[in-house]
Write a structure and sequence with these properties.
One of its GO terms (cellular component) is membrane. It is found in: Membrane. GO terms for molecular function: transmembrane transporter activity. With about 500 residues, this protein is mainly α. The protein has a single domain, classed as Growth Hormone, Chain: A. The chain is about 70% helix and about 0% strand. The radius of gyration is 23 Å and the shape is globular. The relative contact order is 0.15.
Length: about 500
């Protein structure tokens, strides 16, 4: 499959001559948020203005994306720092078995999964400027409380509420991005804030190495300070974020009226106007989309890989014969490399409209890493394998999220699709908590490695099937466009419209 720029680029706007275009989908909190129709990146209002183009998106990139990135960094850090705390003595001090540790991780994911769809729908009803900061502030408190628990039951209670409060953050941030950015700009932005997850993997190792030196301060072990200090920062950042989150495009204070109109011209208008508020009909329509269920297995498989690595990389490295402190530091390089590669891949994905190809290559990277770990007994090769598996996992995740969101409209349908994708993905997180350690003992993790290798290959297969299905649908839509004009088409079709071209 050649990686050449597809029609539908910002310069291709002539549907009548058969060039490819895309109905850029975005939305605001209310039905009044509108946008443009035409080729990717060219809306009804104003056409392409290079000066305005650079200025407007730069403002969003500088004012919105850093906040979103910090949200997700803190989310991932506070959910997975238990892996660093485990290496620092948490499991021993609380007298936990490997099975009990896995249960503690599983308890996080049950409410996490159950809260994803309701929180995404609540985001639409209440507003992101209130929902997202509230979730962040509350889970910061709970994260800090983990540092003062002295029993296994106390840890379980904290893990439950962390999952409940964090569940909606990633799907919520992806949905929030779609309020401001057209589809052809989404993957780079999703990856930019998701790359903070790989940064959190690197950052948590460095932080944990420093914080565990506080062992004994205040008569508390080093692992407790990991939770207390990181949770306290999350709480303070959550409070400050109430004042910096724009609620919608119309209420974005850093844009002039002219800039707001330009952004509206880049976003999809007709479908969003036709959806007045929340619609259960659109929830049902979302559940009927074949592309959602073709991407469902890759969400599950890739998330199992991602969370397995997120929770167990420090333990895997320690199992290679390194000390606990060295294991914290040596977990940094694979995540740093993953961050860089993910950003490069996102640029390619946006430039060439090749979400599916990037997903396939990413999970094949995971397969290479697991094959290396499985086939070698050299600790250097096994450590090197993490650069492939971690990079693949942290590149696939934002690309799949963007691909899923790109191919559903209007807003409620998209919100549902995003949430269902993450529900399926985080179900893989439950499996991941048991695969490594409980069901597959250290240090070889043989059964787990074989399972994750097979999951990588299956994820690639389903991504291929999704590409083939979407390509077939786009061909059918092209034939329909030859037979009628836009005015002849029934309104309210969303992504079923003949003028809505699916991203491959």
């Amino acid at each position: 499959m050649a990686l050449s720029p597809q029609s539908g680029s910002p310069e291709d706007v002539n549907l009548e001559k058969g060039t490819r275009s895309s109905l850029e989908s975005s939305s605001g909190i209310s039905g009044g948020n509108v946008g443009g129709i035409g080729g990717v990146g060219d809306g009804v209002v104003g056409g392409k203005d290079p000066v305005m183009e650079g200025k407007v998106w730069q403002k969003f990139d500088y004012r919105v994306l850093p906040v979103m990135s910090m949200f997700y960094l803190l989310s991932f850090l506070d959910r997975t720092n238990i892996g660093n705390a485990r290496v620092a003595g948490l499991q021993t001090d609380l007298g936990m078995s490997n099975k009990q540790y896995s249960i503690a991780l599983t308890v996080t994911y049950v409410p996490y999964i159950l809260s994803e769809l309701p929180s995404n729908l609540m985001l639409k009803a209440v507003g992101p400027d209130l929902v997202l900061p509230t979730m962040l502030t509350l889970w910061g408190i709970v994260t800090a409380l983990q540092g003062i628990v002295n029993s296994y039951s106390g840890l379980l209670a904290c893990r439950f509420f962390i999952g409940l409060l964090e569940g909606g953050i990633f799907p919520g941030l992806v949905l929030y991005l779609s309020y401001f950015y057209p589809r052809y700009k989404m993957n780079t932005r999703v990856t930019l804030f998701f790359s903070s997850a790989s940064l959190s993997g690197a950052f948590s190792g460095i932080l944990a190495y420093g914080i565990i030196q506080m062992d004994g301060v205040g008569s508390r072990p080093g692992w407790s300070w990991i939770f207390i200090l990181e949770g306290s920062f999350t709480f303070l950042f959550g409070l400050s974020s109430y004042f910096i989150f724009p609620r919608s495009l119309e209420k974005t204070w850093f844009l002039s009226d002219e800039e707001k109109e330009y952004v509206k011209g880049k976003l999809f208008e007709d479908i969003q106007k036709e959806e007045e508020g929340f619609s259960w009909k659109e929830v049902v329509e979302a559940l009927k989309l074949p592309q959602l269920w073709l991407l469902g297995p890759p969400f599950f498989f890739a998330a199992t890989i991602l969370f397995g690595l997120a929770y167990f990389v420090p333990s895997i490295i320690q199992g290679l014969g390194y000390t606990a402190a060295d294991a914290q530091l040596m977990s940094v390089p694979p995540y740093a490399v993953a961050c860089i590669i993910a950003l490069i891949a996102s640029f390619i994905s946006d430039r060439y409209r090749c979400r599916g190809v990037i997903c396939i290559i990413s999970v094949l990277f995971c397969a290479i890493g697991f094959a290396m770990f499985l086939g070698s007994r050299s600790k250097h090769v096994q450590y090197g394998s993490l650069f492939f598996s971690v990079t693949g996992a942290y590149t696939a995740a934002p690309t799949k999220a963007t691909w899923n969101a790109n191919n559903a409209s209007p807003q409620t349908r998209r919100a549902t699709v995003i949430a269902i994708g993450f529900i399926l993905g985080n179900s893989g997180g439950i499996l991941a908590t048991w695969l490594l350690g409980s069901l597959s003992p250290a240090p070889r993790y043989t059964k787990a490695t074989i399972t994750l290798l097979v999951f990588s290959l299956l994820a690639a297969l389903f991504c291929v099937l999704n590409i083939l299905y979407l390509r077939m649908q786009n061909a059918e839509k092209a034939e329909r466009r030859k037979m009628m004009s836009r005015e002849d088409e029934k309104p309210g079709l969303g992504d079923h419209s003949a003028w809505y071209i699916y991203n491959l």
